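Reply to dn_fold:

You asked what the input looked like. This is it:
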Amino acid sequence: FTKIWFPVKPKTKSVLVYQMKRAGHNIGWIIATWFGAGLLPKAPGTWGSLAALPFAYVISAYTGAHILITGIVFLFCIGTWVSNKVEESAQKKDPGFIVVDEVVGQWIALLPLPFLYDYFTPYLSFFPVTGVSFLTFRLFDIWKPWPIKHVEKKLPGGLGIMVDDVIAGIYALITTTVLVTVIILALYILYPAFLSHYIPEK
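and this is what came back:
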Protein backbone atom coordinates (compact mmCIF):
# COMPACT_ATOMS: atom_id res chain seq x y z
CA PHE A 1 0.00 0.00 0.00
CA THR A 2 2.79 2.45 0.88
CA LYS A 3 4.36 1.82 -2.50
CA ILE A 4 1.10 2.82 -4.16
CA TRP A 5 0.59 5.91 -2.00
CA PHE A 6 4.23 6.98 -2.20
CA PRO A 7 5.58 5.85 -5.57
CA VAL A 8 9.16 4.65 -5.85
CA LYS A 9 11.57 7.46 -6.57
CA PRO A 10 12.16 7.56 -10.33
CA LYS A 11 15.62 7.50 -11.83
CA THR A 12 15.95 11.20 -12.47
CA LYS A 13 18.61 13.75 -11.65
CA SER A 14 16.03 16.41 -10.94
CA VAL A 15 14.75 16.28 -7.37
CA LEU A 16 12.26 19.04 -8.21
CA VAL A 17 10.68 16.97 -11.00
CA TYR A 18 10.41 13.99 -8.66
CA GLN A 19 8.82 16.07 -5.89
CA MET A 20 6.32 17.59 -8.33
CA LYS A 21 5.35 14.15 -9.64
CA ARG A 22 5.03 12.81 -6.10
CA ALA A 23 2.91 15.78 -4.97
CA GLY A 24 0.63 15.41 -7.98
CA HIS A 25 0.30 11.68 -7.32
CA ASN A 26 -0.61 12.21 -3.68
CA ILE A 27 -3.10 15.00 -4.46
CA GLY A 28 -4.74 12.63 -6.93
CA TRP A 29 -5.11 10.00 -4.20
CA ILE A 30 -6.51 12.56 -1.76
CA ILE A 31 -9.20 13.61 -4.25
CA ALA A 32 -9.95 10.05 -5.38
CA THR A 33 -10.42 8.84 -1.79
CA TRP A 34 -12.08 12.17 -0.83
CA PHE A 35 -9.66 13.08 1.94
CA GLY A 36 -9.31 9.46 3.04
CA ALA A 37 -13.02 8.62 3.37
CA GLY A 38 -12.61 5.79 0.88
CA LEU A 39 -9.92 4.23 3.07
CA LEU A 40 -12.24 3.78 6.05
CA PRO A 41 -13.17 0.15 6.84
CA LYS A 42 -16.32 -1.43 5.42
CA ALA A 43 -18.61 0.15 2.82
CA PRO A 44 -16.27 2.82 1.38
CA GLY A 45 -19.01 4.05 -0.97
CA THR A 46 -21.23 4.84 2.00
CA TRP A 47 -18.39 6.71 3.72
CA GLY A 48 -17.77 8.66 0.52
CA SER A 49 -21.45 9.65 0.29
CA LEU A 50 -21.46 10.74 3.94
CA ALA A 51 -18.28 12.76 3.43
CA ALA A 52 -19.96 14.59 0.54
CA LEU A 53 -22.81 15.93 2.70
CA PRO A 54 -21.04 18.71 4.66
CA PHE A 55 -19.53 20.15 1.48
CA ALA A 56 -22.92 20.19 -0.24
CA TYR A 57 -24.51 21.85 2.79
CA VAL A 58 -21.93 24.66 2.93
CA ILE A 59 -22.12 25.27 -0.83
CA SER A 60 -25.94 25.25 -0.83
CA ALA A 61 -26.42 27.36 2.29
CA TYR A 62 -23.81 30.04 1.62
CA THR A 63 -23.61 30.28 -2.17
CA GLY A 64 -26.34 28.83 -4.36
CA ALA A 65 -27.44 26.25 -6.90
CA HIS A 66 -25.18 27.64 -9.63
CA ILE A 67 -22.07 27.04 -7.50
CA LEU A 68 -23.17 23.50 -6.61
CA ILE A 69 -23.77 22.70 -10.28
CA THR A 70 -20.39 24.20 -11.19
CA GLY A 71 -18.78 22.14 -8.43
CA ILE A 72 -20.41 18.97 -9.78
CA VAL A 73 -19.13 19.59 -13.32
CA PHE A 74 -15.64 20.55 -12.10
CA LEU A 75 -15.35 17.57 -9.73
CA PHE A 76 -16.61 15.21 -12.42
CA CYS A 77 -13.82 16.33 -14.76
CA ILE A 78 -11.14 16.19 -12.08
CA GLY A 79 -12.54 12.95 -10.68
CA THR A 80 -12.42 11.25 -14.08
CA TRP A 81 -8.75 12.12 -14.45
CA VAL A 82 -7.63 11.18 -10.92
CA SER A 83 -9.72 7.99 -10.92
CA ASN A 84 -8.02 6.89 -14.11
CA LYS A 85 -4.56 7.60 -12.66
CA VAL A 86 -5.25 5.94 -9.30
CA GLU A 87 -6.81 2.91 -10.99
CA GLU A 88 -3.64 2.51 -13.05
CA SER A 89 -1.47 3.00 -9.96
CA ALA A 90 -3.43 0.47 -7.90
CA GLN A 91 -3.50 -1.97 -10.85
CA LYS A 92 -7.11 -2.82 -10.03
CA LYS A 93 -10.30 -2.07 -11.94
CA ASP A 94 -12.59 0.39 -10.12
CA PRO A 95 -11.07 -0.11 -6.65
CA GLY A 96 -13.52 0.47 -3.83
CA PHE A 97 -11.43 3.16 -2.15
CA ILE A 98 -12.06 5.53 -5.07
CA VAL A 99 -15.10 7.44 -3.79
CA VAL A 100 -14.92 10.76 -5.64
CA ASP A 101 -17.59 9.27 -7.93
CA GLU A 102 -19.87 8.83 -4.91
CA VAL A 103 -19.29 12.47 -3.98
CA VAL A 104 -20.37 13.68 -7.44
CA GLY A 105 -23.40 11.39 -7.45
CA GLN A 106 -24.43 12.48 -3.97
CA TRP A 107 -24.11 16.15 -4.89
CA ILE A 108 -26.37 15.57 -7.89
CA ALA A 109 -28.95 13.92 -5.63
CA LEU A 110 -28.75 16.97 -3.32
CA LEU A 111 -29.49 19.52 -6.05
CA PRO A 112 -32.98 20.37 -4.65
CA LEU A 113 -31.30 21.65 -1.47
CA PRO A 114 -30.23 25.18 -2.57
CA PHE A 115 -33.56 25.78 -4.30
CA LEU A 116 -35.51 24.93 -1.13
CA TYR A 117 -33.42 27.39 0.89
CA ASP A 118 -35.20 30.18 -0.98
CA TYR A 119 -38.56 29.10 0.45
CA PHE A 120 -37.86 27.27 3.70
CA THR A 121 -35.42 27.59 6.57
CA PRO A 122 -32.29 25.39 6.42
CA TYR A 123 -33.72 23.18 9.18
CA LEU A 124 -36.75 22.14 7.14
CA SER A 125 -34.78 21.91 3.90
CA PHE A 126 -31.61 20.15 4.99
CA PHE A 127 -32.79 17.14 6.97
CA PRO A 128 -35.54 15.78 4.66
CA VAL A 129 -33.53 16.38 1.49
CA THR A 130 -30.30 15.02 2.94
CA GLY A 131 -31.93 11.94 4.42
CA VAL A 132 -33.94 11.05 1.34
CA SER A 133 -31.16 11.83 -1.15
CA PHE A 134 -28.58 9.84 0.83
CA LEU A 135 -30.78 6.74 1.10
CA THR A 136 -31.99 6.84 -2.50
CA PHE A 137 -28.51 7.44 -3.91
CA ARG A 138 -27.07 4.53 -1.92
CA LEU A 139 -29.97 2.38 -3.13
CA PHE A 140 -29.40 3.15 -6.81
CA ASP A 141 -25.61 2.97 -6.47
CA ILE A 142 -25.80 -0.52 -4.96
CA TRP A 143 -28.76 -1.79 -6.98
CA LYS A 144 -27.38 -0.44 -10.28
CA PRO A 145 -30.55 -0.48 -12.44
CA TRP A 146 -30.22 -0.10 -16.20
CA PRO A 147 -28.15 1.47 -17.67
CA ILE A 148 -25.80 1.91 -14.69
CA LYS A 149 -24.30 -1.59 -14.75
CA HIS A 150 -24.03 -1.52 -18.55
CA VAL A 151 -22.20 1.84 -18.51
CA GLU A 152 -19.89 0.69 -15.72
CA LYS A 153 -18.77 -2.29 -17.81
CA LYS A 154 -18.56 -0.58 -21.19
CA LEU A 155 -16.84 2.73 -20.39
CA PRO A 156 -13.11 2.49 -19.71
CA GLY A 157 -11.06 3.76 -16.76
CA GLY A 158 -12.01 6.86 -14.86
CA LEU A 159 -14.94 7.65 -17.14
CA GLY A 160 -16.61 4.35 -16.32
CA ILE A 161 -15.98 4.89 -12.61
CA MET A 162 -17.62 8.32 -12.66
CA VAL A 163 -20.51 8.03 -15.12
CA ASP A 164 -22.31 5.16 -13.42
CA ASP A 165 -22.55 7.21 -10.21
CA VAL A 166 -23.72 10.24 -12.17
CA ILE A 167 -26.64 8.17 -13.48
CA ALA A 168 -27.34 6.84 -9.97
CA GLY A 169 -27.28 10.45 -8.77
CA ILE A 170 -29.80 11.50 -11.44
CA TYR A 171 -32.13 8.66 -10.44
CA ALA A 172 -31.77 9.70 -6.80
CA LEU A 173 -32.36 13.36 -7.73
CA ILE A 174 -35.66 12.52 -9.41
CA THR A 175 -36.76 10.30 -6.53
CA THR A 176 -35.67 12.86 -3.92
CA THR A 177 -37.51 15.69 -5.66
CA VAL A 178 -40.74 13.71 -5.79
CA LEU A 179 -40.55 12.38 -2.22
CA VAL A 180 -39.54 15.70 -0.63
CA THR A 181 -42.32 17.48 -2.53
CA VAL A 182 -44.82 14.96 -1.17
CA ILE A 183 -43.43 15.36 2.37
CA ILE A 184 -43.64 19.17 2.27
CA LEU A 185 -47.16 19.13 0.78
CA ALA A 186 -48.28 16.62 3.41
CA LEU A 187 -46.88 18.82 6.18
CA TYR A 188 -48.52 21.87 4.68
CA ILE A 189 -51.92 20.15 4.51
CA LEU A 190 -51.77 18.35 7.87
CA TYR A 191 -49.80 20.84 9.96
CA PRO A 192 -49.97 24.31 8.37
CA ALA A 193 -49.31 26.09 11.67
CA PHE A 194 -46.23 23.97 12.32
CA LEU A 195 -44.91 24.52 8.81
CA SER A 196 -45.36 28.28 8.99
CA HIS A 197 -42.66 28.47 11.66
CA TYR A 198 -40.13 27.16 9.16
CA ILE A 199 -40.94 29.49 6.28
CA PRO A 200 -38.65 32.52 6.49
CA GLU A 201 -40.18 35.96 6.25
CA LYS A 202 -39.36 37.79 3.04
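The CA atoms of residues 11 and 18 lie 9 Å apart.
Hope that clears it up.
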